[in-house]
Structures are given as structure tokens and as C-alpha cells.
Write a structure and sequence with these properties.
49% helix; elongated; mainly alpha
Amino acid sequence: MQYDIPTYPGAALRTGSAGSEVARVQKYLSALAALSEPLLSARVDGRYGADTRRAVRAFQTQQGLAADGEVGPVTWAALMEAYGRAFGGGADTNPGVTLRAGARGQDVRQMQRHLNTIASVYTGVGSASADGRFGDATAGQVRRFQRQFGLSADGVIGPATWAAITRVAAALKQGQRPHVFTPYPGTLREGSSGDAVRFLQSYLNRLHGTPLLAVDGRFGAATKQAVKGFQTNSGLTADGIVGRATWEKLIPLYNAANV
């Protein structure tokens, strides 16, 4: 059976290494240790210390590999495959630590790719470079995703956000479009700006069927006109101002259009 093996980080993990790839190794070793007594567990903290080195050496010995206590490409592949066989894991398996600003590596790149896939449909999320570096652009994507999918908008990828990103990305690949749960952001009108305006523009574009508006987060004359058109079609007062009644009409219609 083939597994979607997480990408090797590109350099050996050893004492002093840190990051989500180290956490993934620790998580996988600990899970396998629960199934096989000769193996050792390691604290999942993303820091490669003495206990991680010992656990890696025990795994290498069991697998007939050179027991140097470092995770190079051969040990990485063996560990990822062993975990995959036992638990069905892959690149979308949570590494065991939170990704936040300053994080780097293949796990960050995996989430960036998923966020860009999501942004191709939920355009309010916005796209960013999938460069494996968790900077301001990625944090913004994460916050905008979280606000639309019922999560705390803290801009970090913890277990709940990781699970939601992978779930939505997988659904899109299967031709499904999960519903958004974007809360009412307060009154939006001409001159307003920010993420809530981006969401508004993206939802109006979907209902219109074509990209009528630039999703730029600026509530200008074109956005006002589009709001008035939506209000007229929905039996609302066509004042071009997005109050609660307009927002609460917009979200279910957007979700229905996404089916």
C-alpha cells in the first residue's frame, strides 16, 4: 500500500534541531512505541534532545538501520512508512505542535498549499506564496479562513485549525464546497475596509456568477452598487449598506450557491 509520506525536511534532524518536523518524528515514535515494547517514546515538543535521540536509535535498531540517532532521509522514510502502515497517517496528519508566525518547513508549506487551494474557491481567504515560511501573509490567510469556518481567528494553526484546513481542502478536491459560518461583522458601508469587506465581495461575486468585484477589502462605489443589487433581488431595502438583515440573508444564499 502506498502512503502520502510527509516530505523530508531536506536536512537531517539531529540534537539541537527544532520545529514541526521534529515534533512529527516525536509523535510518530511515541505512537509506534505504544505498539512495540523495544521502541521508546519521546516528548512531543518540537525540540530534538537526548530522549528523542534515544528513541530514534531504538527505532533504527529495530529497522536494521545505522543507529546514529539522527533522522536522515532513510530513517525519515522508514519512520513515515511504519507510522502510515500502523495508523494510516500521511502529510495531512497533524505534526503535534502549533504552527505560527516564524515557523518554517514542509508542514508550513503543506498548509500553505491547502490554503491556496481553498482560496481558489473562497476568494476572501486570499492567496500567498507556498514558500514554507509562516509570515504575515500566511497568518492573514489563516485568520480569514478561521473567521469563515467558525474558528477563533488567532492566525495560528493549532489542532482544530489544522483539521479544518485539511477537511475543507479534501472536500474541495472531491467537488464539495463546505458551508461558511462567517459571523456578522457589524455594519459595512462605503468607506469600510478590511477582511469583512473581502468576504462580502467574494460572496457577492459567487452569487453574481462572475467576478464582478475585485476582492480587495475596500468598500467603494462598485461594491455599494453590488450590495444594492443584492438587496433589491432579496426584497431588502436597497440602501447599499450591509446591516445584520443583509448579512444574514447573504450567508445562506452564498452557501446555497456553493452546492
